[in-house]
Structure formats: structure tokens, C-alpha cells
Design brief:
CATH superfamily: Nucleoside Triphosphate Pyrophosphohydrolase
Radius of gyration: 17 Å
Number of domains: 1
Oligomer: single chain
Strand content: 35-45%
Largest sheet: 8 strands, mixed
Shape: globular
Structural class: alpha+beta
CATH class: Alpha Beta
Number of helices: 5
Number of strands: 11
Distance between the termini: 48 Å
């Protein structure tokens, strides 16, 4: 079954519904010709931690056409036609990571991460929404980049159970404390996608261990 996406102009106005593959073919051709992209889609991005504050990054598979072999946010995904951002996050975690999640408002989130068995369910909250996020990606086998505007909701959350990337898009995971990750990004910046560099810089205040006191 083809994946249908809602396509928006740069003013965030809905202009059409389109098959995902056709959309990406169009924007890549547009970027090649003009150096910019004038359409965007809805996406989600997640930074996942365990209760000790270790951040889970995925290593993108070597077969990926963009950013192969680079460490990236825990998961990202496209919002399909008529789906919400929250539903997309729940689906992506189930399909890619293999565990159930609950997305809560701040007050319930703060209580739930201390009162819930995080070995069996992930507890998440929204950090931010950016309808002008610029996702910069390196094209496989080249030094060329593509910069794609997207409408993105960013999430953070905790989970202590086993993680297994199911769909084969990842070749492994790496866990870092925030300080370890910042240092590794300084020492080996070429190991990481631009997306995760931007997210760590912008959302560091959310990335901390659970205080159970």
C-alpha cells in the first residue's frame, strides 16, 4: 500500500495529497534544478532516554540513500494523510522499536515517569513544534547535501525496556549521557547527522535523568 502524505506550501497551506515516493522524486528534482524546495510535509522526531538519562541514538543503515552510517535521533517519521502527530509517534514506536507508548501533557508526564513501569511502556511528551525546520542530509556516495523544509513536532520520553529496530532501517544503537554526546560531537562531528546536532543544541534542557526524589 502506498503511503499518502499531505503536501503543504511554505506558508503551511495544504495544497494536495500525494504518494510519498512521488513527492520525494519531485522535491529532489526541484532541489537539483533550483537549490531549494518549495513544498513540505508533516513529520515527527523523537529523542528517547532511559531513566538514567542515557540518550538512545540509532545508526542509520549503510543502504540508506541519505545520511548512511550516521548516528541520528532515535526515530523520525512522516505523518500520513489524516493522521495526527501523536498517532504517528505511537505507530512509529510500535513499528520501528517494538514497544507501546503513551504521549502525555506535562503534568501527567512528570508524574507518570516516576509512577509507571518504564520496562513495559514508554512515556513521552511534546517538546516543540517547528513548521520551518530545515532537515539537512548528505546524499549517499557524495559530499552533496539536500536541505528539506518540514513541519515537525519534536518529542522526548523515557523507556527502560529492550529496544530492537524492527524495520531494518537502523544498523545499531548507541547510548550516551548528554555530556558524553556533546563531547563526542565535538571530537567526531562527522559521525552524526545535522538533525541530531541541531536537536541536541536546542533541546538539551529536556535531556536529563529522572529524579525520583
Amino acid at each position: 500500500m502506498s503511503e499518502k502524505l499531505e503536501i503543504y506550501n511554505l506558508k503551511s497551506e495544504l495544497i494536495k495529497i500525494q504518494d510519498r515516493k512521488k513527492f520525494y522524486k519531485e522535491i529532489k528534482e526541484e532541489y537539483k534544478k533550483t537549490g531549494k524546495i518549495t513544498k513540505k510535509v508533516k513529520t515527527i522526531r523523537l529523542l528517547l532516554m532511559n531513566s538514567k538519562g542515557k540518550i538512545v541514538l540509532q545508526k542509520r543503515n549503510s543502504t540508506k540513500e541519505e545520511n548512511p552510517n550516521l548516528y541520528d535521533k532515535t526515530i523520525g517519521g512522516h505523518v500520513e494523510e489524516e493522521d495526527s502527530y501523536e498517532l504517528t509517534l505511537i505507530k512509529e514506536c510500535s513499528e520501528e522499536l517494538g514497544f507501546p507508548v503513551s504521549v502525555l501533557k506535562e503534568q501527567d508526564f512528570s508524574r507518570a515517569i516516576k509512577k509507571t513501569d518504564l520496562r513495559i511502556i514508554g512515556i513521552f511528551k511534546e517538546m516543540d513544534y517547528d513548521d520551518k525546520f530545515m532537515s539537512e542530509r548528505i546524499i549517499k556516495g557524495t559530499k552533496k547535501k539536500i536541505i528539506q523544509p518540514v513541519m515537525c513536532t519534536f518529542y522526548v520520553g523515557y523507556y527502560n525496556g529492550p529496544i530492537q529496530f524492527i524495520d531494518g532501517e537502523s544498523s545499531g544503537i548507541q547510548l550516551y549521557t548528554l555530556d558524553e554526546l556533546k563531547q563526542e560531537m565535538k571530537t567526531n562531528p562527522n559521525k552524526f547527522t545535522n538533525d541530531i546536532k541541531v536537536m541536541i543544541k536546542k533541546y538539551s534542557k529536556y535531556l536529563k535523568p529522572i529524579n525520583n526524589k
